[in-house]
Amino acid sequence: MDISLELIKSISRSSPTKIVLLVIDGLGGLPNPQTGKTELETANTPNLDQLATKGICGLIDPVSPGITPGSAPAHLALFGYNPVNFNIGRGVLEAIGIDFDLEPGDIAARGNFCTVDETGSVTDRRAGRISTQKCTELCQLLDGLVIDEAKLFVRPVRGHRFVAVFRGDELASEVSDSDPQQTGVSPKTITAVSPEAERMAGIANQFVAQAKMTLVEHYPANMVLLRGFSRRPYFPTMGEVFKLKPAAIASYPMYRGLAKLVGMEVLDTGTTIEAEFNTLKQNYTNYDFFFLHIKETDTAGEDGDFDRKVRIIEEVDNALPRLISIEPDVIVVSGDHSTPALLKGHSWHPVPIVLYSKWCRPDRVSEFSESACVFGGLGRFPATQVMTLAMANALKLNKFGA
Amino acid sequence: MDISLELIKSISRSSPTKIVLLVIDGLGGLPNPQTGKTELETANTPNLDQLATKGICGLIDPVSPGITPGSAPAHLALFGYNPVNFNIGRGVLEAIGIDFDLEPGDIAARGNFCTVDETGSVTDRRAGRISTQKCTELCQLLDGLVIDEAKLFVRPVRGHRFVAVFRGDELASEVSDSDPQQTGVSPKTITAVSPEAERMAGIANQFVAQAKMTLVEHYPANMVLLRGFSRRPYFPTMGEVFKLKPAAIASYPMYRGLAKLVGMEVLDTGTTIEAEFNTLKQNYTNYDFFFLHIKETDTAGEDGDFDRKVRIIEEVDNALPRLISIEPDVIVVSGDHSTPALLKGHSWHPVPIVLYSKWCRPDRVSEFSESACVFGGLGRFPATQVMTLAMANALKLNKFGA
User: Which chain B residues are within 8 Å of A69, Cβ to Cβ?
Assistant: First the structure.
């Protein structure tokens, strides 16, 4: 059973205690068939093991047992928001992924540059996978258009991918895609799915027509496809729900964007693990909650590079004393999901978690690993409950009922 | 948190991998006071123990901790359907129990032959527990009646119990019982609880009146009582939800009926454990999901026969290599609920489960038993999540969210 945000809001209180949530992206793994040990079990992690000894361990399910989550739902769960209730549309997710500051009424769509033949049929949905540089140049040609009083932002993502954001009055997101999801046919006309979305559909179709004219000489990227029109969902902020003043330290735009969605302040930081830990230290007095995100473990897992994932875990372990030395009242170390090198992608396997506080009730686990966390005092539980637990350990929750 | 079937449907995909779900009915037990060991712990089960060693173990709750389930809700949960949301009426359950093919509009009621005195008062609600043979003869007298254009099917269950199925246009199930649930009073008139059920109530009362005339010379079975009028609930099929081509191997009609309800194809099989495993082997290429049901463990438990339950578990273990040798991608072995011989009935105790796949992340459990599964990597979780987990391990689920 998930405790509702309303309930948490009714019992949360502000206090001087501080919480640090260290998210090692894609932390969980699968055993190497040669050794029988996972990436985390292979890594030499004396500091994480000491934290496990002093703290309490367990395993978390990002969404539900068996469900492999994307990065967005997995992080929302860690922040305390049930990702099944708070669904983020494809277009919005792409905008977040490039750290685009979406305003409340904005409609975002995911875009592809594509190739069409002389009859208008799509011959390549990815325009021969043009370079990010080429994509950036083409986006500049389309960026800043004003159609029927709506302003357009067209921003590159990577390769053939871009984001189109429509800003204006009375725009609705309930429109169909222009992307036919196959070749040999023309891009579809965008249609309104609800009556309120007629204006949006009209503007989107005008944009596509203008883009076609602008791109006519830019073969193979001579047309655009749009899909996943969506509006930023409403999130009660972490300030409202948890009465925290939260800050995010993340070098990847997607995670900065997600943190902003739930009302965290995003701190400037460098791209190394060391830089991120330094940012924490420098800003420590100004906030009472820190989300610190390590990306490279997930990337190594996605690449199927078992050894690199091991090394990055060891790097994180190596940096950990800096975090411990500033003595946060609550330290939580976990991952958003598993990314076993063997599967070369996200997976459904539950993720090890360790929580340390003066009040954590330590268990007998003395090793931070998938196998050992099975025996942890926290048991196996939904990731959406991590924030409640951290808040409790920071003595930031009042009693429920009398 | 239970993931909805809609969500699973949106991420499930068809693939060549195969899942076998072996359900040992009433598997869980309680320790023999003499030895301190449960039925499963007493049994010599080298093959199950090896599966536990290679796989990942845990304990499942069929409905919720402390709830003792009937066979229908316990199986629905294992098939992924929350039994609290999918309630099967008493009449329908009896029809399923005799493998009666209910059509969508059919209304089924559970029937008792009973004894009434000359004033019409019920003197024995079970007609002196007549034999199944006598019940069968009496049902033949009533079967096939047509009342107000509705056709009646009257079929024996066991002893004094029978099923009455009403087939016709515009029949509704919202009618009261005729069974007064006590002696010394007359059977009740069946009344419509909703306006749409007036026709059904009229037909049911006519049936009771005709049955009374037909049975007048058949003391002690000289009257009928009806209760639990219900219609087959709508189930999205396992094909729709999980995109599986599922088959059921079960020698008892109730389980075949439940499997049909969720869209499994029911395979012809014999009554022995050996016959069931042979059926699996023979049909292995034609399906990608197999539900294989072993009934006798539950029967032994219900009979309070600890030793017989031990022997049957050993028989299943003995047959297991046949299943393992066909190398399904995912093997799940569990029970629908516990049936401790000490309690002579179903119980609320969580049920051991072992899951094996190439991607299962093995734990440290090396013995398939109630005590050892407590330390399993799957932890304790709701039975409704077994299918999601099996699907994940078969790599049949796409990522949730981006």
Answer: 399-401
Give the DSSP H or E segment for B123. Answer: strand B122-124
pLDDT attached to residue A2: 57
Q: How far apart are CA A278 and CA A274, in angstroms?
A: 6
Give me A120's structure tokens. Answer: 């208008």
> How far apart are the C-alpha atoms of B87 and B72, rounded to whole Å?
9
Q: What is the DSSP string of A273-291?
A: HHHHHHHHHHHGGG-SEEE
Q: Judging by beta carbons within 10 Å of its beta carbon (0-12, 13-18, 19+), is residue B271 exposed, middle or buried?
A: exposed
- Which residues fall within 8 angstroms of residue B180, CB to CB, at 6 or more apart? B122, B186, B187, B188, B225
At residue B401, the pLDDT reads 86
In DSSP terms, which residues pair with A227 in a beta bridge? A110
Q: How far apart are CA A330 and CA B126, in angstroms?
A: 65
- Contacts B357 to A, Cβ<8 Å: none
Q: How far is CA B174 from the centre of its chain?
A: 24
Residue B31 phi, psi (nearest 5): -65, 140
pLDDT per residue as tens digits for the range A195-251: 999 999 999 999 999 999 999 999 999 999 999 999 988 889 999 999 999 999 998
Question: What is this model's ipTM?
Answer: 0.88
Residue linked to tokens 């976990």: A334
DSSP string computed for A339-354: --TTTTS-B---EEEE
Residue type, B377: G
Instruction: Determine the Cα–Cα distance for residues A365 and A187; give it in Å rounded to an integer.
Output: 57
State mean pLDDT over B92-113: 92
**Beta partners for B113?**
B224
Tokens 């393992």 belong to B324
Query: Given this model, what pLDDT does residue B1 score?
Result: 44
Those residues whose C-beta lies under 8 Å from the C-beta of residue B6, and which sit 6 or more positions away, are none
Whether A1 shows a pLDDT value over 60: the answer reads: no
Question: Nearest residue on chain B to A2, judged by CA atoms?
Answer: B1
How far is residue B401's CA from residue A258's CA, in Å, rounded to a whole number?
A: 13
Q: Angle at the Cα of B280 (from B73 to B77), degrees rounded to 5?
A: 15
Are A129 and A115 contacting, i.e. CB atoms less than 8 angstroms apart? no
- Local structure of A309: helix, strand or coil: helix
What is the DSSP pairing of strand B56-61 with strand B379-382? parallel
Residue keyed to tokens 């924030």: A387
DSSP A383: G
The model's pTM is 0.90
Helix ranges (H only) for A216-348 are 238-242, 253-261, 273-283, 296-302, 306-325
A10: number of CA atoms within 13 Å, CB side? 8
Q: How far apart are CA B47 and CA B59, in angstroms?
A: 19
What confidence tens digit (pLDDT) does each residue in A102-148 have?
A: 998 999 999 999 999 999 999 999 999 999 999 999 999 999 999 99
Per the listing, tokens 């596509």 go with A208
- Residue A312, CA atoms < 13 Å, CB-side half-sphere: 22
| pLDDT tens column, B219-267 | 999 999 999 999 988 889 999 999 999 999 998 888 998 999 999 999 9
CB proximity under 8 Å: A 1-40 to B: 1-2, 30-31, 38
Q: How far is A384 from chain B (nearest CA, A)?
A: 10
Specify the amino acid at residue A122. V
CB contact under 8 Å between B3 and A59, yes or no, is: no
The shortest C-alpha distance from A68 to chain B (Å) reads 5
Structure tokens that stand for A287 in this block:
């906030």
Calculate how close chain A gets to B357, using CA atoms only, in Å: 12
- Cα(B386)–Cα(A64) distance, integer angstroms: 11
Among B51, B27, B47, residue whose Cα is nearest residue B39: B27
Q: How far is CA B194 from the centre of its chain?
A: 29
Which residue among B381, B385, B401 places its CB closest to the CB of A73? Answer: B401
- Among B42, B63, B122, B102, smallest CA distance to B307 is for B42
